[in-house]
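Weekly structure sync, notes
Attendees: PL (lead), two postdocs, one rotation student
Agenda item 3: pending single-chain targets
PL asked that the sequence for the first pending target be pasted directly into the notes so everyone works from the same version. It is reproduced below exactly as submitted, 338 residues in total.
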Amino acid sequence: MNNIDYKNLGFECQETHANYISYYKDGLWDDGVLKKSTSITISAFSTSLHYGQEAFEGLKAYRRKDGKIQLFRPFDNALRLQRSCERVLMPKVPVEKFIDACEQVVRANADLVPPYGTGATLYLRPFVIGVGDNIGVRAAKEYIFSVLCSPVGSYFKGGLAPNKFMVTYNDRAAPNGTGSYKVGGNYAASLWSNHIAKQNGYADCIYLDPLTHTRIDEVGAANFFGITKDNKFITPKSPSILSSITNKSLMYLAENYLGMEVVRGDVFIDKLDVLSEAGACGTAAVISPIGRIDCEDKQHVFYSETEVGPVTKKLFETLTGIQYGDIEAPEGWIHIIE
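Predicted structure, written out during the meeting:
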């Protein structure tokens, strides 16, 4: 099981030793246990299967140079999962339970956390689903909270290299819907557009705001950011955008480590010439530099289609340096697994 080529590892499921599962019934979560199988048995009437009553998170365990293992901002993940659960009428997972479950999974799979220097990590997937026999459109009475894991490499092939994206006029979220929550329906709504983009040779698609289709909202399943020609970090602000922990971190680093002004505002699709660099960011990809955006019959090239812009590169190096323990982190960002 340990004969994994970590340097050439893709973003795919790998066999692991154990994962965590806990059940909610009669108003209480049980203590939870570790188990080997990634399979679960639920009623075919479960609300998660028919009505999309589910929410999930994504975070990573990093191997440091000194051999220790650390999580990056897991408390933020725990709070975001609580927010998502509340929105789709599921019981919140206490923060302490969330952190403990992640710790248990990492410890049980400690030998599968990729070595320092490979660029690979142990990806954790906490999730909550509604289960039990339910026939009407209403919240379930029973739930499962689980944490799965898998060693993973880069989300996009080629690592930190510019990718090209196409604009889609399909929407991944409604103006006042669940776009800002990490629930499965948003991702199901993005599958078709992602499929079309990849069929046409793009890394993914750019979603515009669902109300006017004039402003950039998200890049596939990631947040968008740009570096303006007067050296500001700008990222869209919209009630349809998922609050990315990675983007939240980049905003802090841009302001406090790179001395840049941070702007949360409109990025108009017909005014991309104000940007010198652009990128997509999220837990899976960290940063994917955007070399080009195609919108209908127009193409816009940012810094380069072959080279990463200097500010994007510095942000990536600073963030990953913190995640792997090479750069001192702001207070509360790092959680070491003892």
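Discussion points:
- The mean pLDDT is 95.
- The chain has seven helices and 18 strands.
Action: rotation student to compare against the earlier draft before next sync.
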